[in-house]
Amino acid sequence: MSIFDAIGIAGTGVTVNRKWMDAVSDNLANINTAVRTADPAYEAKYVVAAEAADGKGTQVAGIVTGGPEGRLVYDPAHPLADAQGYVKYPDIDMSTQMTSLIMAQRAYQANLSVIDRSKEAYQAALQLGKA
Question: What sequence ranges are listed for the domain Flagellar basal-body/hook protein C-terminal (predicted)?
Fold first, then answer.
C-alpha cells in the first residue's frame, strides 16, 4: 500500500462520516417538528456504509429512513393538536443522535489524521538525501 492509497482510503472515510454527520444534523434539526396526527412525521435518516466497490475504503450504500408513524404527545394547547389534544412528533431519540454525532465526528477526525500523517510521511520521504 502506498501513501497515496492511504490518503485515498482515508478520503472515502471522510466522505462517509461527513454524510453521517449531515444525516444526524438533519435528525436533530427536525426533532421538535410537530405535525397533525393524520400527517406523516419527519422520518429520521440513517446512513448505511459499506465497503467500496474496488475494496479500497468505504462508501455510502444508502440512506435508510425511520417510520412516518412518529410518537404522539398530549399537548392540547398546540395549534396542530387534534380533537383529543394529541400532536405527532418524529420518533427520534436525542441521546442516540448525540452519540452517533460524536462517533461520526471522531471517525471523521481519525480519517483526517491519517491524511495528515500520510502527507507528513511523504514530505519526509522527499527530504531524504537532501541533507
Answer: 83-128
- Residues with Cβ within 8 Å of residue 110, at least 6 apart in sequence: 13
Helix (H), strand (E) at residue 5? helix 3-29
pTM of the model: 0.87
Let me know: does 3 contact 117? Beta carbons within 8 Å.
no
DSSP helix/strand/coil, 80: coil
Q: pLDDT band at 3, cuts 50/70/90?
A: confident
Dist. CA 86–CA 39, nearest whole Å: 12
Q: And the C-alpha cell for 3? A: 501513501
Type of residue at 35: V
